[in-house]
Fold:
Amino acid sequence: MDMAHERNASSEEEVMAGDLRRGPWTVEEDLLLVNYIAAHGEGRWNSLARSAGLKRTGKSCRLRWLNYLRPDLRRGNITPQEQLLILELHSRWGNRWSKIAQHLPGRTDNEIKNYWRTRVQKHAKQLKCDVNSKQFKDVMRYLWMPRLVERIQAAASSSSGTAAGQQQHNGGSEGLYESPELPTGDACWPPAEYFTVAGGQLHGTPVPELSSTTAGSSSPSTDSGAGAQPSWPTPADGAVEWFSTTACDASSAAAAAMRDAELAQPPCQVGQTWTSESSLPGLGFPELAVTDFEIGSFDVESIWSMDDDLWYTV
DNA sequence: AAAACGTCCAACCGCCGAGGT
DNA sequence: GACCTCGGCGGTTGGACGTTT
Structure:
């Protein structure tokens, strides 16, 4: 199983906290928990822990079950589709991991949180920018997310010939993109309510519980103008922050004032190259070329040369 | 070969809100 | 209303593992 299980169950890692065990779970504990839940179901974790004969806190049992033992967990790398969804949802909700996880079936909040901290924040660090800064968010929205969409589209189109017949999904006439990491017959991804592929195009639809301002009203062009259309935030979305050319210190009063001004204006500050006329009709998303992208001191080319498959894995 | 460094992720911690008494 | 218990959440940590020097 996992490496934790290979450890000696009587080692000093298993420090007793009172009468409760801590540290890595053993195979025996996992079996106790799984069998008990199979027989009695979840809930009342403290009493469950006692009844199952586990010397663990209810919290620990709950965490172990939700993050590791649950049968419906997805394993393996975060797919580009999932990456795209995480970026998009994080841009809306911030560190609401559990909420984000609700929209990635089989993924846990812990997994998404770890992904964000280890992968996304690393890129922010490489850009010498705070991960929550406006600049970094803009990099994500205008560079990485379109790039991800391109990758998804490329994968979808390259597999459409052979996999089209396998990608029929429940009730829809459009073929869903299926993650290449999933075995045939596994759940399609992303779920139909988010993105679908029809006519070689990736389409975004509103995420449940999200602001209706993004519903079917917005989609970006990619930097190659490919026309992929996940559910991007729009200028009309009050929660969306738009470009500024200020330094990375997003907390400065000047930057805040500039943001306020930007929010009252059409979203155009990318080297002044974007105008309402240059956006795709009705899409509200600037049509950008990478070379147009100038914010602060970012070395845009360095992003593409990063030796990291975060944004490119298929 | 091995030390140093970086990455990943399971698990824990502290806080908070909901619900019950 | 006060108190307590519990579940859930986000932040953090420790250690295994991989990579680089």
User: Anything to note?
Assistant: Residues 134-163 of chain A form the longest helix (30 residues). Residues 3-4, 13, 24, 43-46, 58-59, 62, 95-98, 109, 113, 117 of chain A lie near DNA strand C (CB under 10 Å from a C1').
